[in-house]
Write a structure and sequence with these properties.
Helix content is about 45%, strand content about 15%. The protein is an alpha/beta fold and about 500 residues long. The longest helix has 17 residues, at about 445-460. A hairpin with a 3-residue loop joins β2 and β3 (about 60-65). It contains 21 helices and 16 strands. A seven-stranded mixed sheet has the order 4-3-2-5-6-1-7. The protein has four domains: about 5-145, 3-Layer(aba) Sandwich (Rossmann fold); about 155-230, Helicase, Ruva Protein, domain 3, CATH 1.10.8; about 240-405, P-loop containing nucleotide triphosphate hydrolases (Rossmann fold); about 410-480, Helicase, Ruva Protein, domain 3, CATH 1.10.8.60. The chain binds adenosine-5'-triphosphate (ATP) and magnesium ion. Adenosine-5'-triphosphate binds next to α11, α17 and α18.
Length: about 500
């Protein structure tokens, strides 16, 4: 069967709920239009001759599918609910935003209980959609509350086709090639239908031919919206490549092997799907650099969740923000998700955690890591690894725990060459090997600083860079492994027993 013909998840879930015969269904979502469409599609799917579908709003009252009024707005929610109770024969009643009446009126709550008793097994269904989830105690057993998931890939593809058809009159043409549609569907993942509509219209305004040329507009819109909505998920553009990392052959080999698994796409079984890595190590040894290269290596978009933002309180309670961000990311799989300085959010040892928020975030994260959507690869980085609880490091959560140690002699020279080349200098005449003994215990960041310092000196003296500039710089840099010897040693000895080095141990390690 072609991918486009698959039943979207939200439709399947809606149809299942109706099929299960629950007379009152409360759908928590701001997307009421989408609920109306899902109800129409679900009845088409379930019944040979679909029952009538009514819709109620406080301003319009109860109307039929073609808009004719059956109970005026003046009768209020109570009048419309009376109609439901007395309706003969199967029907679906979609009530928009009934939460307010449920909060304010005991009569409405009572009437809902009547509806449960009178509608069960009669083919009549009351569907409440609301951006607010409110269930009075009296009704907890009578209604089923569900969160409407974001539209999945199949729903987005279907939506794109409908949207393009509705814009056809204004000259919009959709490239219906399957692989193009797939790419558009992927680009819109993580957005609601309304947001997808904005993104598609924005792309169409720039170029009425919706197709591969639209991708930059769709992606840009998506990245802006995701950032605005969650406040904590950031898309990383131009993230970097594996060959910009000096050394780390073990990590590189591991990633290149996993790339093959991602290329298998849907054939991948749950057991072998790559889940993610935890990358710990000394500050400045290329953890962030390595994560940035993973997206490029797997040909997946890279997103970063900012733990500091989550705990800033600017986006509501940290726990809720964290959970919502993780869920949003699941809707955007396949992707690489980077948690930078994860110990910020995961450590359960902090004194500040009197409310237990960190503990709960940690518990959620551990379960989520095992259950999250396939194709979402988590790359977490940590400095204060000793703060991470043992459960976090245990096998099964992450595929591998890597340790980015201080680079060995050969790695240091490679890093130096990479940074010279990156800035347009040929390393050969600069006798990089002369730096070997003078850079013992240095991090990658310190080597980069040495290169930058040498280039600056040469520039200021208005001459070309020479080997001695690099050598002179080495005297000016005091490495972290000296200034913070104890802390660096603590991290190294702690990690070397618990994680795989990104490079094999060899001579020249500080
Ligand atoms: N192995 C390396 N190869 C090339 N450059 C490196 C390497 N390690 C570090 N660098 C350089 O040092 C800079 C700092 O590295 P990076 O930010 O990745 O370190 P980090 O381990 O994430 O540090 P922190 O813990 O402070 O966040 C990088 O931008 C990069 O230019
Ligand atoms: Mg970093």
């Amino acid at each position: 069967m072609s991918k486009t013909k698959e039943i979207p998840r939200a439709l399947r879930e809606t149809a299942d709920l109706i099929d299960a015969g629950r007379p009152i269904i409360y759908i928590h979502t701001p997307e009421e239009e989408r609920v109306a469409l899902l109800l129409r599609q679900a009845t088409d799917l379930l019944f040979d001759s679909p029952p009538p579908l009514y819709s109620w709003t406080e301003t319009e009252g109860l109307v039929t599918a073609d808009g004719s009024s059956v109970v005026g707005a003046a009768a209020g929610p109570r009048g419309a609910l009376d109609f439901v109770v007395n309706h003969e024969g199967p029907a679906l009643f979609h009530f928009h935003d009934l939460h307010r009446a449920m909060q304010e009126s005991e009569e409405v709550v009572r009437r809902l209980r009547d509806i449960y008793a009178r509608c069960v097994d009669t083919g009549r269904f009351l569907i409440i959609s609301s951006p607010v989830a409110y269930v009075p105690d009296e009704l907890t057993r009578d209604l089923v509350l569900i969160e409407l998931p974001l539209p999945d890939f199949d729903e987005l593809k279907e939506f794109t086709q409908r949207e393009a058809a509705s814009l056809a009159a204004s000259g919009v043409v959709l490239d219906t090639d399957e692989s193009t549609l797939n790419q558009i569907g992927r680009a819109l993942q993580g957005l609601t239908l309304n947001e997808s509509r904005h993104a598609l219209r924005r792309a169409a305004a720039n170029n009425p031919k919706l197709g591969l040329e639209s991708m930059p507009y769709l992606l840009e819109e998506k990245h802006l919206l995701v950032k605005k909505k969650t406040g904590v998920i950031e898309y990383i553009a131009n993230p970097g490549k594996l060959d910009e990392i000096g050394g780390a052959p073990v990590l590189k080999k591991w990633l290149l092997e996993r790339r093959k698994l991602f290329e298998m796409g849907d054939q991948l079984s749950r057991e072998i799907v790559p889940k993610g890595i935890l990358l710990m190590g000394v500050s400045g040894c290329g953890k962030s650099l390595a994560v940035k290269a993973i997206g490029t290596c797997f040909s997946l978009p890279l997103y970063r969740i900012d733990m500091i933002e989550i705990f800033s309180g600017r986006h509501g309670n940290p726990e809720g923000t964290f959970v919502a961000a993780c869920k949003t990311m699941e809707e955007m799989a396949p992707a690489v998700l980077w948690f930078d300085e994860i110990e910020m959010g995961i450590t359960s040892k902090s004194d500040a955690d009197s409310s237990g928020t960190l503990g709960r975030i940690f518990a959620f994260f551990l379960t989520w890591m095992q259950e999250k959507a396939r194709g979402l690869f988590v790359a977490a980085t940590a400095n204060r690894i000793d703060l991470l609880p043992a459960e976090m490091i245990r096998k099964g959560r992450f595929d591998e725990v890597f340790f980015a140690d201080l680079p060995n002699e050969d790695e240091r020279m490679e890093i130096c060459r990479i940074h010279l080349q990156k800035r347009g200098f040929d390393p050969a005449p600069l006798e990089v090997d002369r730096l070997r003994q003078f850079t013992k215990g240095w991090t990658g960041a310190e080597i980069e600083q040495c290169v930058v310092g040498a280039i600056t000196t040469a520039k200021l003296a208005e001459r070309t860079l020479v080997a001695d500039d690099l050598l002179n710089q080495t005297g000016k840099i005091v490495p972290l492994s000296q200034t913070m010897r104890e802390q660096v040693e603590h991290i190294r000895s702690w990690a070397l027993d618990r994680a795989i080095r990104t490079a094999p141990r060899s001579r020249g390690v500080a």
